[in-house]
Specification:
By secondary structure, this protein is of the alpha/beta class. The protein has a single domain, classed as 3-Layer(aba) Sandwich (Rossmann fold). Helix content is about 30%, strand content about 25%. It is built from 9 helices and 12 strands. The strands form 2 sheets. It has an 8-stranded mixed β-sheet, sandwiched between helices. Strands 2-1-4-5 form a 4-stranded antiparallel β-sheet, covered by helices on one side. A hairpin with a 2-residue loop joins strand 11 and strand 12. It is globular, with a radius of gyration of 20 Å.
Length: about 300
């Protein structure tokens, strides 16, 4: 198993109130697999990404990368060597005052490669990420969003990363560029044996790329399973609501504050019952497909 997340909680104290950004997350990412993570804004997706990357320490629980506990600060080197994030806004991913070559060169600093050798390596890899022209000595503002996102992915590969956390990687790109980036990600996954955690509001994109899907709400995963099973036969009422939303776009769904305790979806659930005030049980809907619900 590439990554194992076990019982991860992340709480923040805001104005004397405890915010449960992550409230007991269990999730696995297999080698050479793509896990799609979907949910409304504020549900905890980005917090989970930052916790995996070591920006936050879990309040409880642990995260293992190939059986090494990376939620332990002593193992942060394992994160740097194996896990990289590709951000939502490609323009914020690069130093605006540095040429692309210098940003990529920093990614391979441990290899102590001479700049001439590095330039040759970068030019070879530009083709692999679908860039035909030499952009190495341009500044970020001189490139398109699609070019910079390809370069963000290239930088992660140059570091030798095996797991990429893709946080809304196409949300700032047009439809045509988005489809090209998705095709590129699939190709690179096979070529370099990569695994992805693909975070997105857009379920159509997730359906297009993911092997496995986890549905998140209010800091909890309420349903998870193979992509085909989730999209063709969703069990949790929240997942059903998401898939029935116009164009699968979660940003259009009203977010309401839930009551403390019990099922996090009960105030919006058409099937809610009195017992939904208690924590819902784990149910299996098939091989690797599970959900939390009294239904």
């Amino acid at each position: 198993m590439m990554l194992q997340i076990r019982g991860v909680k992340k709480y923040f104290l805001k104005r004397k109130k405890t915010i449960k950004a992550l409230d007991g997350i269990d999730l696995d990412i297999k080698e050479n697999h793509i896990v799609g993570l979907v949910g409304e804004s504020g549900c905890g997706k980005t917090t989970l990404a930052k916790t995996i990357l070591g920006f936050y320490l879990p309040t409880e629980g642990k995260i293992l990368f190939q059986n090494i506990e990376i939620s332990n600060p002593k193992n942060e080197e394992v994160i740097r060597n194996n896990i990289q994030i590709v951000f939502q806004n490609p323009y914020s991913s690069f130093d605006p005052y540095k040429k692309i070559f210098d940003s990529l060169y920093e990614a391979i600093s441990k290899k102590k490669m001479k700049k001439k050798e590095a330039e040759k390596l970068f030019q070879e890899h530009l083709i692999k990420v679908g860039i035909k022209e030499n952009l190495l000595f341009r500044y970020p503002h001189q490139l398109s969003g699609g070019q910079l996102q390809r370069l963000s992915i290239l930088r992660a590969i140059l570091r030798g990363s095996r797991l990429l956390v893709l946080d809304e990687p196409t949300s700032s790109l047009d439809v045509s560029t988005t489809l090209k980036i998705l095709d590129l990600l699939k190709e690179l996954k096979e070529r370099f044996s990569l695994s992805y955690l693909f975070i997105s509001h857009n379920l159509k994109l997730v359906k297009n790329i993911a092997d496995y899907v986890a549905v998140m709400l209010e800091g909890k995963i309420v349903e998870a399973g193979p992509a085909e099973s989730i999209f063709n036969n969703p069990y949790h009422p929240y997942t059903q609501m998401l898939l029935s939303a116009a164009d699968y776009r979660l940003k259009n769904i009203l977010i309401r504050e839930e009551e403390e305790g019990g099922c996090v979806f009960r105030n919006r659930c058409p099937f809610k019952k009195e017992k939904c005030r208690d924590s819902p049980p784990l149910k299996k809907a098939g091989k690797e497909h599970f959900y939390y619900c009294f239904q």
